[in-house]
Structure formats: structure tokens, C-alpha cells
Design brief:
It contains 9 helices and 21 strands. It has about 475 residues and is an alpha+beta fold. Strands 1, 2, 3, 4, 18, 19, 20 and 21 form an 8-stranded antiparallel beta sheet that branches. It has a 4-stranded antiparallel beta sheet with strand order 7-6-5-12, with no helix packed on it. A 4-stranded antiparallel beta sheet has the order 9-10-8-11. A hairpin with a 2-residue loop joins strand 15 and strand 16. Helix 1 crosses helix 4, helix 2 packs across helix 3 and helix 3 crosses helix 4.
């Protein structure tokens, strides 16, 4: 039995014992605390809430907040109306509720409308309001949605740098917290500092709550990028690299092009899934070589919707030729081709040289971003024979992400917990992620598979979009407001 189940059992047993004793203090049979939903119905009666209010407990997501409100009001009926009491019941309810139940000084005071309102100072009111807001925002961020900003052009033109979007946690199911000792509403660092916002002294096993669906091909997915390098891109000194807990790794957003069990291959820039050509996203971009008669001015680049991250100037190669490389969708390439000052435009030729940066960087995989695979994505329950070639493809995944305690790879041998194994069965599902801006994306071709426990949520919709290269009056991209992500 893992720690999460033990904690769940403690909260359930401790909370039930506490509510049993509190029911008895209100001259009600304690055994009613054992009946799910009926116990909450009795609590509503003791609080003075209307009968219809129980409907909130049956609505997914909303029921979590409704249950907290119910418990907070319930303990108020026993004189526990301070902020510290609310915090105690949230984090230590399995201890706090039984303590209330067995405390002879704690009495049932009646429904809320019969309890005198305790006067609060302005400081207490503001403190309560701020703490409630932080708790509510933390619960929403964990359970329902989290805000995310597109920092790089790897998904252009499907998603643009400066897009602010909401990531749905309930589509794939919310992950339970792995690193509980963390300042609320922070990620790796305390705001505006380099001070860590967490302590990794306690690491809980993570599980996933039931969701509406599973990760599908072509979903736009936000996930914690697995690799050490990708999590320390801004730190050139390897000795200072930080190994973050899974839930605090850097979030990336890419398109899921392959799910567990799929065979992934890229041939001459075209993606194949299970040996069939994949549907390309409508706004997918590649790198083009463009020759113009003269230098293209900013006004014309603006008309094309291209910013400085979309092109690179190589300079004048002859009196009437200026060369560029541009990241363009097929549709945009046709627009550029039709311009009177463009002499030629051509997709950059396919690269056939092995790229040492590519995953899995092995003699068995002399691949690059344009020609990659075939490679089978690991699936939970999939068994492979262990040899030199399979270790080259999957060894790092087995060692780093598949929940094994002690793994060593020695030549063509896989040693787990001190014992050599000749075949291996994967313990979780994996996914293959790629950016729509195929020639300018650091994705699974370079750092490998995304483990299922690294998946954060599904890109849902854009709520704001700002163009950092535009002038003040054109800064907001109004056409992208509340645009659904596809």
C-alpha cells in the first residue's frame, strides 16, 4: 500500500470518527456519519443550509469546493470559526476533527443563523479574505485550470508567442500533489527571486484522478518536460543543474503526434504514424529559403504577419538579390511567392546527416529532425527483450522514468535492484510530442518520450494574446480572444 492510500485511509477514518462524535454532541446518532452523502445531508441540517444544497456535492469539480464550504460551516457550529481552524481541518482533518469530537469543552451551538457573529478587525478580515483567495486559487489551479503563456515559437502558427491560455486539468484527470512543501501559486522559484519555492524533503507518490478522456493523437498537451538539460536551459554550468521533482519540472506545450504503442517515423519531413502519413496541422511551419530583389522592410514583414523570430537575413549576395530563411506555413509560403519583389522561394532540402543531438543518440539511430525512426512508443504492459539495440532505444527511459529504484546499464546488460534482467515490461504509458513549427521545435525528436505521469493537462482556449513586437495600439491580438485550441 503506497503513502497516498495510507493518507487517504487516515483522512477517511479520522474524519469519520470526528464527525461521529460531533453528531453525538448535537444529540444525533453517531453511526449516521458512516453513510456517504447522508452524513453530509445531516451536516447541512445542523448548519441550517437548505435541502437542495446537496446537489452541489454531485457536480464534479464543484463538489470539492462545496465540501470544504460545508466542513468550514460545520465546525463554525461548534465554535471553531478562526482561520487557523479552517487550515487545521484542511491539512490535518483526520486529527483535528477527532480532537474536537472528544473535547468536552466543544459544544454544538446551533445553526449558523443562531450563532452570534464574531466581530473581526480590519486586519483579520483582510487576512481571511487573502487566505481564502489563495486557497481557492490553489484549488482551482490544481483541480480545474491553470494559466500558461507561450514562451517560444515552437507551436507557431497554431499558437503564437505571447498567447495566454488556460490548460484544462480535468480533461485527463488531475494529478495528486507530489511535492507538498511548496509556497502556493509558485513554480520553481519565489516570484522575482532565485530562491527555491519548495522543499523536496517529502515526495508523495502521485496518482491521477478520473478524467473526461485520455491523451489522443493531435491533442495540444502541456506537460513537464522530462530531461535534465531542458529543465536547465538557462544554466550553462552543469554542476549547478537542478534535478526538479516531476511536478516542478519546466512545463512545455506541444502536439501529441503519437500515443503509447504507436510506431513513429519521419521521412523527408513528413510524419508517419503506424506506417501511415499523419495529417499535418493546418498552420504547421517549415523553414524556407527566400530570395528577394531587395531588402524587405519592416512594413512588408508586418503585412505578412512575420516577426523577427520568423526570419533570418543572410544579406545581399548580388546587386539584385537578398537572401533570407523564413519559417512559413504552406499557405504563407504561397503568399510570399506571389509577391512581386520575391525572386524565388524553396523549402530547405531534407537533411540526411545524423544529428548527435537527436534521441536516442546511438549508432542504432543515425537520425535527424527530418528523418527519424521508426521507433515504437512504450506502452504500459509492453515487454521487450534486453539487448544492445533495445537498451540504446529504451535504456534511459527505463532508468530515469519508469519508477525503478536502482537501475544500471552496463554494456548490453540491464541491472535492476542488483539483478540482471533479460526482458523488461514497461510500467506506464508514454507519448511522443512535436511542435507544429517543425524546423524550430525542441521536442521528442531531441529529448525522447513523455511519461504519462509528466502530463499536466490539455490546452483549452486562449484568453489573451499580446504581440511583443507590435506598437502600443496594436499590442493586443483581438482576433485570438477566447479562441479554442485545436
Amino acid at each position: 500500500m503506497n503513502i497516498f492510500l495510507i493518507l487517504l485511509l487516515l483522512f477517511t477514518i479520522g474524519g469519520t470518527i470526528g464527525i461521529w462524535k460531533l453528531f453525538e454532541k448535537a444529540d444525533l446518532p453517531g453511526w449516521k456519519a458512516l453513510i456517504p452523502f447522508y452524513a453530509q445531508f445531516i451536516m447541512m441540517k445542523l448548519i441550517g443550509k437548505p435541502t437542495w444544497w446537496i446537489v452541489y456535492l454531485f457536480i464534479p469539480v464543484i463538489n470539492v469546493f462545496a465540501l470544504y464550504v460545508l466542513i468550514f460551516d460545520f465546525i463554525r457550529c461548534y465554535g471553531k470559526d478562526k482561520l487557523v481552524h479552517q487550515g487545521a481541518v484542511v491539512f490535518f482533518g483526520f486529527i483535528f476533527l477527532p480532537m474536537m469530537g472528544f473535547d468536552s469543552q466543544v459544544k454544538y451551538l446551533g445553526t449558523l443563523d443562531k450563532i452570534p457573529v464574531r466581530h473581526k478587525t480590519i486586519v483579520q478580515e483582510w487576512t481571511d479574505a487573502i487566505v481564502f483567495a489563495v486557497v481557492a486559487a490553489t484549488l482551482i489551479r490544481w483541480l480545474i485550470m491553470e494559466a500558461y503563456t507561450i514562451p517560444t515559437p515552437s507551436m507557431e502558427n497554431s499558437l503564437l508567442v505571447g498567447d495566454f491560455l488556460f490548460v484544462s486539468k480535468f480533461h485527463y484527470g488531475t494529478r495528486t500533489p507530489r511535492t507538498p512543501l511548496q509556497i502556493p501559486l509558485t513554480h520553481q522559484k519565489i516570484w522575482f527571486t532565485d530562491i527555491p519555492s519548495y522543499l523536496d524533503w517529502i515526495q508523495l507518490p502521485s496518482t491521477r484522478l478520473p478524467g473526461l478522456t485520455s491523451v489522443k493523437r493531435n491533442d495540444v498537451v502541456v506537460f513537464n518536460v522530462p530531461g535534465m538539460y531542458e529543465n536547465n536551459l538557462e544554466e550553462p554550468d552543469r554542476s549547478r543543474w537542478i534535478k526538479y521533482p516531476v511536478d516542478l519540472k519546466t512545463p512545455y506545450i506541444k502536439r501529441c503526434v503519437g500515443i503509447s504503442g504507436d510506431v513513429i517515423e519521419v521521412k523527408d519531413k513528413q510524419l508517419y504514424v503506424n506506417h501511415q502519413p499523419a495529417n499535418n496541422p493546418e498552420e504547421m511551419q517549415y523553414r524556407y529559403h527566400v530570395v528577394s530583389k531587395d531588402e524587405i522592410n519592416k512594413r512588408n514583414f508586418d503585412k505578412l504577419g512575420l516577426d523577427p523570430e520568423d526570419f533570418q537575413t543572410y544579406g545581399r549576395t548580388s546587386p539584385d538579390e537578398v537572401e533570407y530563411t523564413m519559417l512559413l506555413s504552406a499557405k504563407k509560403a504561397e503568399e510570399v511567392k506571389a509577391l512581386p519583389y520575391i525572386k524565388s522561394i524553396a523549402l530547405l532540402p531534407t537533411d540526411h546527416e545524423a544529428d548527435p543531438r537527436i534521441f536516442p543518440a546511438s549508432k542504432y539511430a543515425p537520425w535527424n529532425g527530418d528523418n527519424f525512426g521508426p521507433l515504437t512508443i512504450p506502452k504500459e504492459g509492453m515487454t521487450i527483450a534486453i539487448n544492445d539495440s533495445t537498451l540504446a532505444m529504451y535504456g534511459s527511459t527505463i532508468r530515469d522514468y519508469d519508477h525503478n529504484n536502482e537501475v544500471k546499464i552496463e554494456g548490453n546488460k540491464l541491472i535492476i535492484d542488483g539483478k540482471e534482467v533479460t526482458q523488461y515490461t514497461f510500467k506506464q504509458n508514454y507519448y511522443f510530442m512535436m511542435g507544429d513549427n517543425r524546423d524550430n521545435s525542441l521536442d521528442s525528436r531531441y529529448w525522447g518520450f513523455v511519461p504519462e505521469d509528466h502530463v499536466l493537462g490539455k490546452g483549452f482556449f486562449i484568453w489573451l494574446s499580446l504581440d511583443k513586437y507590435a506598437g502600443f495600439f496594436n499590442k493586443i491580438r483581438w482576433s485570438r480572444f477566447f479562441k479554442m485550441i485545436e
